[in-house]
Amino acid sequence: PRTFYFSRHGESLFNVMGKLGGDSDLSARGRQYARSLPRLVSTFIPSANKLTVWTSTMRRTISTAQFLPNNKLAWKALDEIDAGVCDGLTYEEVEERFPEDFANRDDDKFNYRYIGGESYRDVVQRLEPVLMDLERQTDVLIIGHQAILRCIYAYFMNYSHERLPYIKIPLHTVIALTPGAYTCEERRFKVDI
Ligand code: F6P
Q1: Mutate which of 146, 153, 161 to test ligand 1's pocket (most atoms within 8 Å of Cβ)?
Q2: Nearest Cα to 124, choosing from 90, 147, 98, 91?
Q3: What spacing in Å lies between the alpha carbon of 84 and ligand 1's midpoint?
Q4: Whose C-alpha lies nearest to ligand 1, atom 5?
Q5: Atom of ligand 1 nearest to the CA of 19
Q6: Distances in Å between the alpha carbon of 32 and those of 43, 74, 86, 98, 111?
Q7: pLDDT per position as a tens digit, 29-65
Q8: Which residues contact 10 (CB under 8 A, 6 or more apart)?
Q9: What stretches of 45-181 show up as alpha helix (H) in DSSP?
Q10: ipTM of the complex, rounded to two decimals
Q11: Out of 31, 145, 150, 172, which one is annotated catalytic?
Q12: Which of 69, 70, 147, 173 is the most exposed place for a label (fewest CB within 10 A)?
């Protein structure tokens, strides 16, 4: 059966500061993850040398993929959820400056759309061409973002819209999914950094 792989980018400077969005580069830990990826991939992925690596157009995913010798493709459609006016804020700052929005997002995280930005529903829609392509491909490794990978995971694992925005996609872990006729098999490879 056809397996594909995905990982969040290595820890970013914004991750360390707890800020949403942005286009920051990797932290020291994140760079270490990037350096450890080629060995992780060649150890656990049988088709390692045939893989195509898909990234977003953001620094943190491109930097994470930089040491992989494979062909790469950067998709704009894989960029992280656009937090609009909340881009660059921490969750605490969002709650302080936009209390109503903060509460609305908590009420219905899938449908809540950031002011000047996107909802998870919007992201699912813009991911459609990526998912269509992914279904036809073999040997793909996606280096992505938290919200994006939640949508991709939910698509293959049949998670509801209610659960989707809360799926845990840990940093520094490669997840392998093998879609079958009825269920999807999952494996995880974690790097301790
Ligand atoms: O914090 C990292 C991040 O990728 C942000 O850029 C993004 O806004 C957020 O995660 C998405 O997660 P949630 O929908 O839980 O806020």
Answers
A1: 146
A2: 147
A3: 12
A4: 20
A5: 1
A6: 17, 21, 29, 36, 36
A7: 999 999 999 999 999 999 999 999 999 999 999 999 9
A8: 26, 27, 29, 30, 31, 32, 33, 34, 60, 63, 64, 171, 172
A9: 59-65, 91-97, 99-107, 120-126, 128-136, 146-157
A10: 0.98
A11: 145
A12: 69
pLDDT tens digit string along 98-132? 999 999 999 999 999 999 999 999 999 999 999 99
Give the DSSP letter string of 46-81. TTGGG-EEEE-SSHHHHHHHTT--SEEEE-GGGSPP
* pTM (2 d.p.): 0.97
Give distance in angstroms: CA of 73 to centre of ligand 1: 23
Q: CA-to-CA distance for 80 and 187, rounded, in angstroms?
A: 24
Residue 36 parent element (H or E): helix 28-44
Residue with structure tokens 């494979």? 70
The minimum-distance atom of ligand 1 relative to the CA of 120 is 14
* Annotation marks residue 161 as catalytic: no
Task: Residue count of the chain, please give it.
Answer: 193
φ, ψ of residue 67 in degrees (nearest 5): -95, -5
Nearest to 119 by CA among 52, 169, 164: 164
20 C-beta closer than 6 A to ligand 1:
yes
